[in-house]
Write a structure and sequence with these properties.
The chain is of the alpha/beta class and 212 residues long. Helices cover 49% and strands 14% of the residues.
């Protein structure tokens, strides 16, 4: 094992945008009552990294007790983007994220593997002048495990020499599926059997200690 490539989730790892998106999910569900909104937020919070469209499907199946229709899915997607995108464009970065990007840019290939729609994550990172740090930026679809697998194949590296940096069990599951290293960020993953910190302020030291 020797770190030769870094793959970052975006929301909650690079950008402190999870609270923004949580508010957007609640706003979508509020017309159906407070209990429905609370359940939707809980589901969203315990399924970080999952496509918002899969979460919309869950809400219709579990709360409204019927399948979501394609036009409804599209409408909810447009509303979600309206509620969240402007805030995501200006939200702060996770502490230590910019230091990590600057330190490893040009030293290690870096990628983004996000559960947000591909076009959206590319747009946001480009507008914030962050896309310059990355060899590739990938959002859904497909699901995160398949995205990480695609990135790993494109590098021609042993997956054991790639580090996935994430803040959700979806990120951890993707790393285990592909066979990469994993570094956890944020309180949602505290206490796992992998390196972890609340922010990325200790991340550079970990990478340094695990390079050749």
């Amino acid at each position: 094992m020797a770190i030769e490539c870094l793959v970052f989730d975006c929301d909650g790892v690079i950008l402190d945008s999870v609270p923004v998106k949580t508010r957007a999910f609640r706003r979508l569900a509020e017309p159906y009552g407070e209990e429905a909104a609370d359940r939707f937020v809980i589901y969203h919070s315990t399924h970080g990294g999952v496509s918002r469209y899969k979460k919309f499907e869950w809400f219709f199946d579990e709360i409204l007790k019927r399948p979501i229709q394609p036009d409804e899915s599209e409408e909810w997607g447009e509303k979600f983007e309206k509620y969240a995108l402007e805030e995501v464009r200006k939200c702060p970065m996770i502490p230590g994220a910019m230091d990590a990007l600057r330190k490893w840019h040009g030293v290690l290939p870096m990628y983004v593997c996000s559960g947000a729609p591909d076009e959206e994550v590319n747009l946001v990172l480009s507008e914030r002048n962050l896309s310059r740090f990355f060899t590739g930026i990938y959002g859904t679809p497909p699901a995160k495990a398949q995205l990480l697998e695609k990135i790993a194949r494109s590098t021609s590296l042993d997956p054991a020499d790639i580090a996935m940096v994430g803040d959700s069990t979806t990120d951890l599951d993707a790393a285990e599926y592909v066979g990469t290293l994993f570094y956890g960020v944020g309180n949602g993953l505290k206490g796992g059997a992998f390196p972890w910190s609340e922010t990325l302020e200790n991340f550079n030291a970990w990478v340094e200690a695990n390079r050749r």
